[in-house]
């Protein structure tokens, strides 16, 4: 690796699996220290052990302001600063027809996907404004760029993430803080395996599906999204703010097809994991 993040400190929500875990590994390889903030205690603890002295795990529910504040405070306490906040945690959430969708499921999904990003942004900003520097990254989705690629509430939340990113970038720029979003397309993770195959462990079949749909002819992996995060978090991206970087092999440029999430009766997707 190139050491592009030498000495930097990052909090990554949803970092115990999927894109978050891939990013945590890449950040440490590039010289950063990371706080793994996640509800998956066993997986998060294993990853922190794997990454060694450069990593900490903290049990974090991103819908809880106290939990998010504690993750930020842990970074400052153990590593003396906060350079990067990556608001990455998410789930598929409620799916189904808008005419039958329970409002409580709408609220729960929005709490994870949008309130969580707001809370991470808020508490990163209170530290970064005092520092006079920092980078905030938010995981959006291609479903936040165009309609028809995800469930209704997921799509609405991801559009909200992009809007919040643009608005906050404008406020925080005078403080030396850059704010950007990353919009992954289909990415090979346990979450997409569960959605595509019904089995979160069947990542090989998910990779086949994703590769077949990719305009480039091969699937994207967490490391592909992590590379975008490294760029935006590093000095290489020092003049980029308020931007949404789409990492989807050109899928949104090539056009979309109807998806199955918004058909049939609604259900709540409960399995812990991270949407890609």
Give a written overview of the molecule.
The protein has a 7-stranded parallel beta sheet with strand order 3-2-1-4-6-7-8, sandwiched between helices. It has a two-stranded antiparallel sheet with strand order 5-9. The protein starts with 8 loop residues before the first strand and ends in an 8-residue tail after the last strand. Helix 1 crosses helix 8, helix 3 runs parallel beside helix 4 and helix 6 (190-197) packs across helix 7. The chain has 276 residues and is α/β, with parallel strands linked by helices. The chain has a single domain (9-185, 220-248), classed as 3-Layer(aba) Sandwich (Rossmann fold), CATH 3.40.50. It is globular and about 45 Å long. The protein has 9 helices and 9 strands.
In short:
The protein is 45% helix and 15% strand.
Q: What is the average of the pLDDT values?
A: 89
Helix-strand category: alpha/beta
Instruction: Report the principal-axis shape.
Output: globular
Relevant CATH superfamily: NAD(P)-binding Rossmann-like Domain
Q: Helical segment tally?
A: 9
CATH class: Alpha Beta
CATH architectural grouping: 3-Layer(aba) Sandwich
Q: Termini, distance in Å? A: 25 Å
What kind of oligomer do you see? Answer: single chain
Please render the helix and strand layout as text.
Blueprint: E1 9-13, H1 18-29, E2 33-38, H2 41-51, E3 55-59, H3 65-79, E4 84-87, E5 94-95, H4 103-131, E6 134-139, H5 152-172, E7 177-184, H6 190-197, H7 203-213, H8 222-233, E8 244-247, H9 251-254, E9 267-268
Parallel strand pairs: 1-2, 1-4, 2-3, 4-6, 6-7, 7-8
Antiparallel strand pairs: 5-9
């Amino acid at each position: 690796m190139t050491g592009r993040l030498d000495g930097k400190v990052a909090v990554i929500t949803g970092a115990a699996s999927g894109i978050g875990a891939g990013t945590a590994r890449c950040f440490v390889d590039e010289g950063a220290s990371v706080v793994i903030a996640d509800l998956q205690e066993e997986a998060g603890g294993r990853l922190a052990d794997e990454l060694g002295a450069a990593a900490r795990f903290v049990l974090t529910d991103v819908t809880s302001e106290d939990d998010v504040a504690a993750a930020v405070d842990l970074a400052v306490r153990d590593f003396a600063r906060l350079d990067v906040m990556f608001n990455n945690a998410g789930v598929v959430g409620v799916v189904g027809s808008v005419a039958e969708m329970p409002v409580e499921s709408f609220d729960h999904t929005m709490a994870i996907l949008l309130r969580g990003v707001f809370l991470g942004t808020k508490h990163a900003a209170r530290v970064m404004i005092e520092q006079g520097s920092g980078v905030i990254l938010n995981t959006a989705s291609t479903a936040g760029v165009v309609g028809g690629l995800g469930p209704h509430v997921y799509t609405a939340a991801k559009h909200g993430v992009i809007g919040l990113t643009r608005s906050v970038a404008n406020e925080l720029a005078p403080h030396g803080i850059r704010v950007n979003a990353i919009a992954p397309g289909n990415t090979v993770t346990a979450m997409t395996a569960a959605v595509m195959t019904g089995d979160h462990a069947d990542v090989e079949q998910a990779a086949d599906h994703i590769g077949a749909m990719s305009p480039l002819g091969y699937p994207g992996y967490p490391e592909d999204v992590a590379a975008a995060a490294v760029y935006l978090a590093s000095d290489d991206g020092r003049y980029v703010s308020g931007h949404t970087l789409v990492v989807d092999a050109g899928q949104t440029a090539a056009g979309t097809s109807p998806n199955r999430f918004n058909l049939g009766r609604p259900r709540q997707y409960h399995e812990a994991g991270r949407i890609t």
